[in-house]
Write a structure and sequence with these properties.
Blueprint: H1 2-23, H2 36-64
Helix pairs in contact: 1-2
C-alpha cells in the first residue's frame, strides 16, 4: 500500500518535471530521441488529466492507509 503511494507520488513529480523541462526547451537527455516532440505534446496537452488521475489514486491510497 505504501509502496503504491510512493510510486504514484514519484510518477506525479516526474510528470511535472518533464512538462517543466519541455517548456524551457527539450532537455539534452531527450534530444537524441525521435519521439521527444511527441512526448512534449502529450505532456502539455494532457497534464491536467495526468494530475487528476494521480491525485485520485493518491487520495484512494491515503484513504486506505
Amino acid at each position: 500500500m505504501a509502496i503504491g503511494f510512493i510510486l504514484i507520488f514519484v510518477l506525479l513529480i516526474v510528470a511535472e518535471l518533464l512538462k517543466g523541462l519541455s517548456a524551457n526547451g527539450t532537455p539534452p537527455v531527450l534530444q537524441k530521441y525521435a519521439w521527444q516532440m511527441d512526448l512534449a505534446y502529450v505532456m502539455w496537452s494532457s497534464i491536467a488529466h495526468i494530475r487528476m488521475i494521480c491525485f485520485v489514486i493518491l487520495a484512494a491510497l491515503l484513504w486506505q492507509m
